[in-house]
Design a protein that fits this description.
The longest helix has 26 residues. This protein is mostly helical. α5 runs parallel beside α8. The two termini are about 35 Å apart.
Length: about 220
């Protein structure tokens, strides 16, 4: 877990630095930074989709996952619950920024493969690389949305920690096919988050998060049956 802990620390430090910069940035510069993050999220989302979709052996799985996951997320109403919690600490657009930060930090090849390689081979290359990228991203996000972006480090720890434990105890299920399906869904969620930041359309990206659980359940079911 050394790599994951280091990754979380870089996000916290980056958020602190970004929050200090925010105090000296005029509103019009904060607006352009928000637009920049929106375009970056859109680009990263499209890139993940384009790279992963041709490698999928189950072209319908991501559609089923989004549908089922969206229904479950809407029933729980994750987005509203999340906004209520964040609203207790901030009246700004922190909820939008934090949800984007969680998606950008967690949904990516490095953030998924990193803890797996760490658990199986004691290889921290992916996690250290991811930490550097997240450090820069957290500075930019915090300079726009504030120090609250640091809370994404807690979610990242749970996310990467889950993959770390799965790699140790459920190694048979951690196939390249599973990671491909997760990457496709993650790319779509990041794209939706970017479009929301740009104000093109507001999507309930967080309500779609349960979609990420459908591929693992599918592969476990496929393994046994």
């Amino acid at each position: 877990m050394i790599g994951t802990i280091f990754n979380c620390i870089t996000i916290i430090v980056g958020s602190f630095i970004g929050s200090l910069l925010k105090k000296g940035i005029k509103d019009r510069y904060q607006d352009i930074l928000m637009q920049a993050m929106g375009f970056a999220a859109v680009a990263l989302g499209i890139n993940a989709i384009v790279q992963s979709m041709p490698q999928s052996d189950f072209p319908v799985l991501f559609i089923v996952s989004l549908a089922l996951g969206g229904l479950v997320g809407e029933m729980i109403d994750i987005e509203t619950q999340f906004n209520k919690v964040v609203g207790r600490f901030s009246k700004s657009d922190l909820a939008k920024g934090l949800s984007t930060a969680i998606l950008l930090f967690c949904i990516g090849t490095l953030s998924i493969l990193g803890p797996i390689n760490s658990a199986l081979y004691q290889d921290y290359t992916y996690l250290f690389t991811n930490a550097i990228l997240d450090f820069v991203t957290s500075i930019v996000l915090a300079s726009t949305f504030g120090i609250g972006i640091a809370f994404a480090a807690v979610v990242l720890f749970v996310w990467q920690g889950s993959f770390y434990l799965l790699a140790i105890y459920l190694n048979d299920f951690m196939s390249a096919h599973l990671l491909t399906e997760i990457s496709i869904i993650g790319g779509i969620l990041i794209l939706a988050s970017g479009l929301s930041i740009l104000g093109i359309k507001s999507f309930k990206s967080l309500n779609m998060l349960p979609a990420l659980l459908v591929p693992p359940l599918f592969f476990i079911f496929k393994h046994f049956f």
